[in-house]
């Protein structure tokens, strides 16, 4: 009810402002009146649309394969959004090109709120510099609606690896330049670039082995085929707790309650080091502002649900809600931050 009243007041004020222009312009009163009515009708239709949305099933595009962090977050939001709106919310995976294929599909969809995108740091941050050409503009080619959750990467090693903290790991690598390697979920992924940032900060010589996804990389790490890698914190937690991996450090500025004894990279000798992954909701460009605000409010309600907060806490994730304007600014900052890491690493995908 409050949302409807606010929208109606905005329409009335905008129409009045247009009509009052007759005192300062050379337009005829009749033209001004027609313009005011047109504005009123347009704004009323936008507000009415946002108030009635949704009236049919919503489709959420996940631009990554099933079972990963982005997919898991997308399915959680879909379930809760369906509960709040009373409409089915269907998740559809459109994987490929590190998220570009699914993201491009959404960027070319109708801006009516019935096709949304679950995006991550790769497709909405890293790819801008990683790819020599992009099928869509990351900042302007989508409507950035709000944050789902964010969390750090964890530096993990095989349990048999001799280093027990970051200081020991750095010393071991420096004593044996070029001997050790590390896995990643793919060239240009956030966990690849997190290690590249650490390599640059500590002046390390270590070999990169890119895998096709997190599953194969983590399996080889647990089997001892590769000694170390950065991995999304929520993916690392269960394996660390089961003893299949050993956590050395996390890339957030503060420790995570899920693994409270694991220090941050920043407190382990690299002040200011931060590299967090995140998941957000976007939509096609040119979505009505009122509709964007409504979906943002639904995301904020989801983030406050006790069972969601409990799930995030177990996985070491933060809800970190952002308003649409703040979300767009965040995306711009991420494109810049990860762009520097990509250029420093020399990673490129054509």
Descriptive overview:
With 350 residues, the chain is an alpha/beta fold. The protein folds into three domains: 2-52; 58-150 and 279-345, Bordetella uptake gene, domain 1 (D-Maltodextrin-Binding Protein, domain 2), CATH 3.40.190.150; 152-268, Periplasmic binding protein-like II (D-Maltodextrin-Binding Protein, domain 2). It is 47% helix and 16% strand. It contains twelve helices and nine strands. The protein has helices spanning 2-20, 29-52, 69-85, 100-107, 122-130, 166-175, 190-202, 214-223, 233-241, 289-303, 306-315, 324-345; strands at residues 58-62, 89-93, 115-120, 143-157, 181-184, 207-210, 228-232, 246-250, 276-283. The strands form two sheets. Strands 1, 2, 3, 4, 7, 8 and 9 form a seven-stranded mixed β-sheet that branches. A two-stranded parallel sheet has the order 5-6. Helix 7 (190-202) links the parallel strand 5 (181-184) and strand 6 (207-210). Helix 1 (2-20) packs antiparallel against helix 2, helix 5 (122-130) crosses helix 12 (324-345) and helix 7 crosses helix 12 (324-345). The longest helix has 24 residues, at 29-52. It is globular, with a radius of gyration of 24 Å. The model is unreliable at 1-28 and 41-46 (pLDDT under 50).
Which SSEs are present, and which pair or pack?
Blueprint: H1 2-20, H2 29-52, E1 58-62, H3 69-85, E2 89-93, H4 100-107, E3 115-120, H5 122-130, E4 143-157, H6 166-175, E5 181-184, H7 190-202, E6 207-210, H8 214-223, E7 228-232, H9 233-241, E8 246-250, E9 276-283, H10 289-303, H11 306-315, H12 324-345
Parallel strand pairs: 1-2, 1-3, 5-6
Antiparallel strand pairs: 3-9, 4-7, 4-8, 4-9
